[in-house]
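Aim 2 progress. For N-acetylated alpha-linked acidic dipeptidase like 2, the working sequence is reproduced below.
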Amino acid sequence: MGENEASLPNTALQGKKMAYQKVNADQRAPGHSQYLDNDDLQATALDLEWDMEKELEEPGFDQFQLNSAENQNLENSEAADLSLDPIQPATSPKGRFQRLQEESDYVTHYTRSAPKSNPCNFCRLLKIFCMAIILFISGILIGYYSHKNCPSNATSSGTLDLQLYQEILKTIEAEDIKKSFRNLVQLYKSEDDTEISKKIKTQWTSLGLEDVQLVNYSVLLNLPGLSPSSVTLSSSGQCFHPNGQPCSEEARKWSSQDLLHSYAAYSANGILEAEVIDVSYGNAEDLKRIKKMKNVTNRIALLKLGKLPLLYKLSLLEKTGFGGVLLYIDPCDLPKTANLSYNTFMVSLNPGGDPSTPGYPSIDGSFRQNRSNLTSLLVQPISASLVAKLISLPKDRTTNGGCSPLELPNNEERIVNMKIQTVTKFETVTNVVGYLKGLTFPDRYVIVGSHHHTAHSYNRQEWASSTAIITAFIRALMLRVKRGWRPDRSIVFCSWGGTAFGNIGSYEWGEDFRKVLQRNVVAYISLHSPVKGNSSLHSVASPSLQQLVAEKNKFNCPRRDQCPKTNISSEQMQDDADYFVNHLGVPTVRFTYEDIKTLEGPSFLSEALFPKHATKIEEMDPFFNLHETITKLSGEVILQIANEPVLPFNALDIALEVQNSLKGYQTNTPQLLALASRLRESAELFQSDEMRPANDPKERAPIRVRMLNDILQDMEKSFIVQHAPPGFYRNILYHLDGKTSQFSILLEAWEHCKSLASNETLEEALSEVLNSINAAQVYFKAGLDVFESVLVGKN
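Predicted structure tokens for this construct:
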């Protein structure tokens, strides 16, 4: 709603008052050198112009009138145009009031007598002209010297432009990131995670970052047992380790750490001997088909990782009656360059945080629940080579140059004995948190998150890549801060611990400071696993930030005509952004380099953590140019969010995303579509009427900008549902992967409805989505009402 919609009382007294103000404004014109450059005076003048236009449109305003019917028709047509396009800014600085005065047929009810001639008029005009010249030159000199003597660090950071961002980012070099990465990898070989955290703190402090803290939490970890798990074929008595090697002392010594860490954290312990049943990817349709053919009670499922969240698939298997799971990755789902047939991996069955304190922080005195395992299933990750041995498959499985997926024949029976032994114990998880206090809005936080190595887990080399990138950006940023500059909003740098066990460090910190973060966090920028491949840049962003990310991708492409197609999506991420997205509704961005095959293949393969030697960062990015690109892209987004007076979020894109998520759905209800349409209308009004501060003088007031930003930063909170299937995001704006556009909870409910012939789950999901859309529409409408009431109150 802007000034154009503000109503003014319709009295002749006000008309006289406005005319008086107009005359006084004209009388001040000669001294414009000191006043017209003042924003407040210009804003007052523009307010006056808009108020006068509204007075002209009032039916009771009789101070001015048009004599000819032709001009009356012209005025009516102008009013009609304005009503059809209320968001169009005025193109004339003088406004319609001035244009009407310039019409040849324009007259007033009163007339002025012609000024009497005066022989001294020329002398007076000459004096006025000389005075204006003197004032003009004086104003220039005063402005020049005051600007020259003004220190550069006094300039508001809100006026920083793209050139300043580039000056900060140009100091980031690939060679520096490479050196930092190698130092971290060497540090990992000799230190545990506590020492690594201390070294990161020391390095950040040496770079000049303020108030760097180590935040510790005592949490329940599920760790490998003293001996590795095993799988034994009952028919032959052959015993195999998870990597497919025969059980022997020699094999155990050859890769003891890899074997010990080939396990599912928080799985049930024990021994189970049963028939193995191939459930493929384990979706509802697969299980429905298998249940018709076999008795699955207490059987062992042979399950492929991918396509759906692991926790969701395990919940289906548990409900169906299975007792154990052999989990593997089909080589056909991996890029050809990834030869991981003999590699085992680790997974975590923890949805997030310390399992002993679900929903509340693990601080001293907190009640601890006894939750050594989070599922009744015995879950064991195994290599593809062991799967091939279980199903007696020949080594050469290629067909016509393609890849033949692993599959257990339905007419063959395999009985195996699986043994799982893990231990649970309380360990300390450490986060490193450093603050750069903002200049204008220190109580608004842009969080930048990486992660570091956690003891008893693989974590590969990705943690070193992540930590090297965040350190490189801190170094570049602090070089500028030491010269007197600061961002408008505070930037909080976090290196999380316990990521491999279910994002424990970020969850506990988020739960610990939940009340503060709910109110103050503006955005979360994730630097988790920045380089997974080298063929394609994949960007994940909240709908409100996709436009900003697309702009950065195009800007950082050296040759626009050869830029690859922008690959941006709002999809689930397996990283520490989880808590901020699903519990706080914080807009999020992450840039990652990946392989094309990985993006085209099944999603959720990144839930598997392979050994450090399985993924070699320096082979994928030998010169660390990809690391430099990720650092600069992420850094530019961080700087723009931290410095722009109005947050660079797009309200309308959220409404469009909602409408797109309802397209093509089988059971769209009229209520859902109607609500989505109203949400779009409210978002359009909000974006056009309130997100144009440069066109409305009232918007430039700090209180209005603050109100606007408060609304923008909380837009996504309405889309957090209370109940979501295990492994699914509670924030329904995020899809399962980049290939699906529908709401994930509706897709799951529809599949559940088809398999169980019951629509209760579907109705619950529809209700969750409907309530979320309605809450968002009410939120935007309330924001519009607040701005309208402020304008009415001031008028």
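The radius of gyration is 33 Å. This observation will guide construct design in the next reporting period.
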